[in-house]
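FORM 12-B: Structure-to-Sequence Request
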């Protein structure tokens, strides 16, 4: 299972507020047919699932701001694809917490 951190920034929206765009992205994640789990943070979204599913979801997410009037979209993706063990968001957090 891979974990991605994705940040999608609509540009050319005519406003500095992006919360309505973020809300639309979250709605897409809530209804995604792929087997994913996500966590919204103040600065990005973390999604776990198969790498194939993650790329499919990210592609859809990237398109949403365009559908809602953005003239340009900048998407940053960070991928953690560990294959020696089955990882998850919860497992990564527990690993750190155990060491505190």
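FORM 12-B RESPONSE
SEQUENCE OUT:
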């Amino acid at each position: 299972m891979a974990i991605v951190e994705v940040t999608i920034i609509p540009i050319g929206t005519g406003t500095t507020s992006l919360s309505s765009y973020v809300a639309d992205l979250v709605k897409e994640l809530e209804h995604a047919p792929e087997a994913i789990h996500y966590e919204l943070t103040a600065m990005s979204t973390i999604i776990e699932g198969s790498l194939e599913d993650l790329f499919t979801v990210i592609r859809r997410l990237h398109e949403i701001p365009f559908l809602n009037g953005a003239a340009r979209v900048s998407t940053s993706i960070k991928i953690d694809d560990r294959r020696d063990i089955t990882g998850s968001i919860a497992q990564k957090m527990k690993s750190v917490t155990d060491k505190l």
